[in-house]
From TrEMBL:
Keywords from the UniProt entry: Apoplast, Disulfide bond, Secreted, Signal
Family, as annotated: Belongs to the PMEI family.
Signal sequence residues: 1-25
GO CC aspect terms: apoplast
Keyword Hydrolase recorded: no
Any single Pfam family the record assigns to this protein: PMEI
Protein name per Swiss-Prot or TrEMBL: Pectinesterase inhibitor
Amino acid sequence: MQPFTCAMLSLFAILTISISATSDAETDFIKASCDTTHYPDLCYKTLSPYANTVQKNAMELANAALVVTFKSAKSTSKVIRGLSKGHDLSMRDGEAVADCVENISDSIDEMKQSMVAMKDLDGPDFNEKMGNVKTWVSAALTDEDTCMDGFEENDGKMKDTIRGYIVNVAQLTSNALALISMIS
């Protein structure tokens, strides 16, 4: 094994600086974009892992935000479905959970529609397509809020547990909507 030579060390330093500069520029773009959202810390935390894909492209950032939101909504739906089974739920909690599962399912469908539409924005009808995307993401946010409305009269652990999951998804959805709005 050869020891590091000065030339090798210099090349390594140049590559490291080059990689760091690129990475810093990409994460700075994400940070600046996230600062325009309602939940900038959550935005940056969830989207910075996509820096290499996003680079400095607002469209890629919005797509990444949709993907993160979609995954979170699917995960939340699975958790809520699990909470609805095998527990001694009050009738009121049971109804609220069932409604919440339906609302989150609708939210997931709207996220899917948004992700599909974001891949086909080219052409003269760009504004119309972006309007549809914003409408679907807004509807998803409304569905998430409606889920929590079903627990308004309820007290207890179930409400608090579900609120934690739904608030996270709603904040991600709000961030995605803000990033999408920056494009149009």
